[in-house]
Amino acid sequence: MRRRFSAMTALVALLGGTALLLAPPAAAQPYPPGACTATVGSSGDFGAFPVGSTVTLTIRAICTFTDTTATVIVNGQAAGTKPVAPDGTVVVTVTILSPTELSVNPVVRGQCGVNTVSVTGFSASAGTTVTQTATFTVLCPAARPAARAVRGRVAFTGDNIARWSAVALFLVAAGGALVMVDRRRARARRSDT
Hints:
The chain is of the alpha+beta class. Residues 17-21 and 27-33 have low confidence and may be disordered. The chain is rod-shaped. Helices cover 27% and strands 36% of the residues. The protein has a five-stranded mixed sheet with strand order 1-9-8-3-4, with no helix packed on it.
């Protein structure tokens, strides 16, 4: 058992050493780092919110915003400007007024489902304007499905009279049978006399 363990350990050590020898050498990173070239980026999805909620989006560009203000666009509509924080982020607060209205600076069109907020501002590290987008989802109440008509059945609009109709039919048949029995007895008595 010890020999197998020793042989396995030696094999693992040999394979590990071979892998280290064949690995490419690490490349040194230049210092200072070069200019930022990512002018368009995404801050991701901030989640799903029902009507009446307020959503706070903290948006940071890959090439940090360095100007004092940035332009905000919501679902393709201008939504004013927002100040850039000292850390290079822009905070956009969106209040979901209804399934079709969002309040940012002005009231803009919203939609059930995914809504997109884009922030554009100058970045000194990029030497140009950069755009960062973020998304969030507006949860809308589900529409009630229309009532489906069932083929071959009459719509139920009132009291269920089928049971009472069956009882009445049985009573009429029983009454008719009693009348026939009584008539036969009456004929039988007449014929006996």
